[in-house]
Amino acid sequence: MNTTEVIRAENLTKIFKTRESEIVALKNINLSVKDGEFLCIVGPSGCGKTTLLRIFAGLEKQTLGKVYLRVKNTEKPLTAMVFQGDSVFPWMKVTENVEYGLRMRGVPTRERREIALKYLKLMGLEKFAGYYPHQLSGGMKQRINVARAFASDPEILLMDEPFGALDEQNRLILQQELLRIWEGSGKTTVFITHSIDEALLLGDRIIVMTAQPGRIKAILEVGMARPRDMLSIKSSPPFVQLYREIWELLREEVLKARDIKLKK
Ligand SMILES: Nc1ncnc2c1ncn2[C@@H]1O[C@H](COP(=O)(O)OP(=O)(O)OP(=O)(O)O)[C@@H](O)[C@H]1O
């Protein structure tokens, strides 16, 4: 691994064995994620995106190949994951949810409360610190998840379609908020999405995956200046050109994935 890399995958293959069959979820993935990079992954349903993220998070073991993650600071968690939908603890108040990772690490109460409040503020949730999740909307709960991930201060943020379940307006607001806190943090981030718009707004690079078995079909540099916002980039020529390029790559794979599903 060279000094600019934080994640490196070499010939990564994942095969799930079920009673009836074997599913090759990922095949020969070679990729590296640079320090501070925002990497987006798009691909058709079932192409192994979540599996790849789970391998990076140590929640799943690859069948073949190697994964290296650079540990810079052993006191911090290596990764934090944000999933689609809400994964907040319903019995904990908003602040307690955000503090959770810090509490697990034994960070003293006052310090962890300060950190939690900082991220609640950044996510526009400070007024709701004492509320329980059931008193909040879906978008607000997803904000808690994002605040919790940043508060636990991992080396690497892994986000699996975190805004996939939100309506368009809430998604736009959260994307912008995520960008704002990410830009201030410089955290290496791997972000899965089905939305080309979202990948272009957020990513430094975009990986397009093939239909199952998931392989890397293309890696594209986004190259648009930051800070970005959806309104101004959407009509810019690089956005339009990259959108078209990605959709052409993806379209073929989405159709293949549909055929795979029909045959099952
Ligand atoms: N624990 C498991 N056991 C068996 N098969 C699995 C398991 N986890 C995932 N798979 C299979 O591996 C393939 C890849 O799944 P994965 O969830 O990684 O895809 P994905 O690209 O994230 O899909 P989506 O976009 O729909 O969320 C799928 O065919 C899935 O059914």
Model description:
Keywords: ATP-binding, Nucleotide-binding, Transport. This is NitT/TauT family transport system ATP-binding protein. Pfam families: ABC_tran. The chain is α/β, with parallel strands linked by helices and about 260 residues long. The chain has two domains: about 1-70 and about 165-264, P-loop containing nucleotide triphosphate hydrolases (Rossmann fold, 3-Layer(aba) Sandwich); about 85-155, no CATH class. About 40% of the residues lie in helices and about 25% in strands. It has helices at about 50-55, 95-105, 110-120, 140-150, 170-185, 195-200, 230-235, 235-264, and strands at about 5-15, 20-35, 40, 65-70, 80, 155-160, 190, 205-210, 215-220. The strands form two sheets. It has a six-stranded mixed sheet, with helices on both faces. The protein has a three-stranded antiparallel sheet with strand order 2-1-4, with helices on one face. It is globular. It starts with a strand and ends with a helix. Bound molecules: adenosine-5'-triphosphate.
Q: What best-fitting shape do the alpha-carbon axes yield?
A: globular
Q: What are the secondary-structure elements, in order, as H or E?
A: EEEHEEHHHEHEHEEHH
Strand order of the largest sheet: 5-6-7-3-8-9
In terms of per-residue confidence, which ranges show pLDDT below 50 for 5 or more consecutive residues?
none
Overall tally of structural domains? 2
Distance between the termini: 40 Å
Name the structural class.
Answer: alpha/beta
Percentage beta strand = 15-25%
Q: Could you please say which CATH topology of the largest domain applies here?
A: Rossmann fold
Round the mean pLDDT to the nearest integer and report it: 93
Question: Largest sheet, if any?
Answer: 6 strands, mixed
Q: CATH homologous superfamily name of the largest domain? A: P-loop containing nucleotide triphosphate hydrolases
Task: Supply the CATH class of the largest domain.
Answer: Alpha Beta
The helix content is 25-40%
Bound molecules: adenosine-5'-triphosphate
Helix run count? 8
Count the E strands: 9
Spatial extent as radius of gyration: 19 Å
CATH architecture of the largest domain: 3-Layer(aba) Sandwich
